[in-house]
Amino acid sequence: MPTSSENILFGMGNPLLDISAVVDKDFLDKYGLKPNDQILAEDKHKALFDEIVKKNKVEYHAGGSTQNSVKIAQWMIQKPHKVATFFGCIGKDHFGEILKKKAAEAHVDAHYYEQNEEPTGTCAACITGDNRSLVANLAAANCYKKEKHLDLDSNWELVEKAKVYYIAGFFLTVSPESILKVAKHASDNNKVFCMNLSAPFISQFFKEPLMKVMPYVDILFGNETEAATFAKEQGFETDDITEIAKKTQNLPKENKKRQRVVVFTQGKDDTVATVGEKVTMFPVLDIDQNDIVDTNGAGDAFVGGFLSELVQERSLEECIRAGHYAANVIIRRVGCTFPEKPDFH
To answer: Rounded to an integer, what distance in angstroms lies between the CA atom of residue 184 and that of residue 283?
Structure first.
């Protein structure tokens, strides 16, 4: 069986410093937040970041959807270190230094584009019960520049070194041209390019860049809400998740050597995946409601677990099993955090 090697996995996205705290309903109402959602910060949310830090006991973690996933893939694999390369943009500031430190501690080979215009991005996870409302202030993460970073020979060499690529849909709001360059490289070299629908607003408001990349997508991830929104935007005229998976699989594809795989998670319900011509349901691991601490990061963790087996060329079933395991571990803890070692066999 192939094992992992350094830089075999490549991720690119929005590096954010996660700030998580348990809040009350009044806090959500004050900032017009839904209990279970993810949004980009507007002006009315700017004070939220200060308030959450001042009024609550907060935890800081290196975050951002893609960075979380590659971090978890590394944790699942354990050795060698630096299995994953990660690209994204940060500020030259204190939070940026914390982020670099956290990425290094997680053994992720992060190569950040550092600039002075904007501060390092942050993401507030406002936790109430089993729900979490994410408010991301992308700031520096928005400033990634293809020509200033991805196109540099020393960086592009790291892209070429990888065999599996993963980019969350969130990055479509930042640098679709960077995504396309990586996606085309993967397709031209018969490597595996994976993407995530990430949030309903991506399918709604970034439909054009999303559909430009879709022909290069070998594996598409999403959850039930994102799948439903995507189906509506694409005019699929069905709300049956297995039908949506099938129709998504059959969208135009560049590299005909690989049939597209579509994987939709549904919280505690079965994960839906296209396996060849059929759609299969994979039950998640049982968990007692009382053991669920924070569902924040469950989706990122699922992808991370999945990728950890994918880079080792394991079967789809094994990839999903690892995804379920990682998600099951993550939801028992606050934020996208994990114990020292996985217990996955």
So the answer is: 34
* Beta-bridge partner residues of 281: 272
Mark whether 300 is an active-site residue.
yes
Edge-to-edge strands, sheet with 9-12 = 109-115, 84-91, 9-12, 164-168, 192-196, 219-223, 261-266, 269-275, 278-282
Annotated catalytic residue, options 130, 269, 300, 343: 300
- Segment 87-103, tens digit of pLDDT: 999 999 988 998 999 99
**Of 304, 298, 290, 338, which Cα lies nearest the Cα of 125?**
298
| Pairwise CA distance, residues 53 & 197, whole Å | 30
Q: What is the number of alpha carbons within 13 Å of residue 163 lying toward its C-beta?
A: 14
- Strand runs labelled E in the chain: 9-12, 16-22, 37-40, 59-63, 84-91, 109-115, 121-128, 131-137, 164-168, 192-196, 219-223, 261-266, 269-275, 278-282
Model pTM?
Answer: 0.91
Average pLDDT in the 168-173 region? 97
Closest CA to 342 of 79, 135, 126, 145: 79
Does the domain made of 9-15+63-119+139-330 have the CATH classification 3.40.1190.20? yes
Contact between 36 and 132 (Cβ < 8 Å): yes
